[in-house]
Amino acid sequence: MTGEPRTVGVEEELLLLTPQGSPAPRAREVLETAAPGDGPLEHEFMEEQLETATPPVRTLADLADALRAGRAGAQDAAGAHDARVAALATSPVAFTGTTVSRVRYLKARSHFGITAWEQLTNGCHVHVAVADDDEGVAVIDRIGPWLAPLLALSANSPFWQGGATGYESFRSQVWSRWPTAGPTRVFGSAAAYHQAVETLVATGTILDEAMVYFDARLSARYPTVELRVADVCLDVDSAVLLAALARALVETAARAAAAGEPPPDAPPELLRTAHWRAGRSGLDGDLLDPATWRPAPAHDVVGALVAHVRDALSDAGDLQDVTDLLGALWSRGNGAARQRAWAAASEGDLAAVALRAADGLLAG
C-alpha cells in the first residue's frame, strides 16, 4: 500500500416503496429513465430494490458525501415513477417479491425455491483496498471474529412480512439460507482460497463464482476485500461508521499478517454462533467476546473492537470521528431500535415505519 489510508467504497442496497409504504416493483422503469446525475444505479435480485455504489475514497468526509449523493440520486430517479427509497434491510410491510427478469436471476429463482423467492433483503457491502490476493486472503483469515459486532452495529431489520421477528437483523437470518453464506475457515493462501471457490462452483450447487457469499471475500471486480456481513444502514452516519471500522479491521489484519502473527483460533461454528447472536440481539443484549467466546455486554464487545483497531483508526485520522459516531449511535440506537420505536409510536403501523425511514434517507 502507499502509506496513505486504504481506499474504501460502499455498495448499498435500497428498498423501493410506493407512496403508501409497500415495496414497489419499479426498478426496471427507474433504471430505464435514470439520468447520468442520478449516479451509479444498478439492479439487484428483486424489482423492489436498487443498488448504489460510491467510488473508492480515502477520507470519511468524502465517503459521507458520496453515500448521500448516491441515496439522493436513487431517490430522484425513483421519484420520477411515483416511488420512494428507504434504507431498510427488510420491508416492514408484507410483500411478494418480483424477481428481476434476467436469465441468471430467473435461474436462481427456479433453482433455490423459497430461498430466492423471499430474498428481498438489503445489505451494505464495504470494499477495502488490498495490495493483492495474498494480502486479501491473509486479511480474510484474520477478521472473522470481529464481523459479528459490525452486524450488531448495522442491524436494521426487525420486521418481516408485516410483523415483529424478535431479531434486530432478520435479514441475516434470511440471507443465511444461501448455501455459501456465512463465515469461512482459515485458508492460509490465495491459492487455497481460489481452490475452495472453484470446488464450490464445481459442486453444481451454486450457479457461478458470484454466488460465493462468504461474510468476507475477495471481490471479483475490484482489488478489494469485500465485507458483506452488514445490514444496509438506516442513516448515512451509521454507514460511515461501519466503513471506518471495516477499513481499520482490514489494515489491522494486514499489519498482523505482515508481522508474521498467525490467524486467531476462530472455528467457523463459533463464528456462525457469534453472527447469529449479533443478528438476534444487536446492541440490546450480549454479544460473544472474541477474546473468550463468552457472552459480554454489546457495549464492551464494541469497545474491544475499537481497541483492537485503534492504531489503524488513529493512523488514518479516523479515531475521533469513529468515537463521535459511536457515541451518537449509542445515544439514538441502531436502525432496528429506531424502527421498533417508530412502530410503537405509530401503534404498530409498519407502513408508517417504512415511510419514516424514507423521510430520513439523507439524514445523518
Automatic annotation (TrEMBL):
GO terms for biological process: modified amino acid biosynthetic process. It comes from the Bacteria. Coiled coil: none annotated. GO terms for molecular function: ATP binding; glutamate-cysteine ligase activity. SUPFAM superfamilies: Glutamine synthetase/guanido kinase (SSF55931). Its EC number is 6.3.2.2. It is an enzyme of class 6 (ligase). Keywords: ATP-binding, Ligase, Nucleotide-binding. Pfam families: GCS2. It catalyses: L-cysteine + L-glutamate + ATP = gamma-L-glutamyl-L-cysteine + ADP + phosphate + H(+). PANTHER family: GLUTAMATE--CYSTEINE LIGASE 2-RELATED. ATP-dependent carboxylate-amine ligase which exhibits weak glutamate--cysteine ligase activity. Belongs to the glutamate--cysteine ligase type 2 family. YbdK subfamily. This is Putative glutamate--cysteine ligase 2.
